[in-house]
What does this fold into?
Amino acid sequence: CWMALEDAQLKQFVSNHSAGLLMAIGESVKP
It folds into this structure.
């Protein structure tokens, strides 16, 4: 389940890179 995986990684990712959150969202929104 990508949702669970991304959720865990995203939290850790954002903790290290706040600006990275926008990048992560941009990648996830791509069709």
Observations:
- DSSP finds two helices and no strands in the chain.
- Residues 7 and 13 are 10 Å apart (CA to CA).
- Helices lie at 2-16, 20-29.
- Residues 1-31 form one domain.
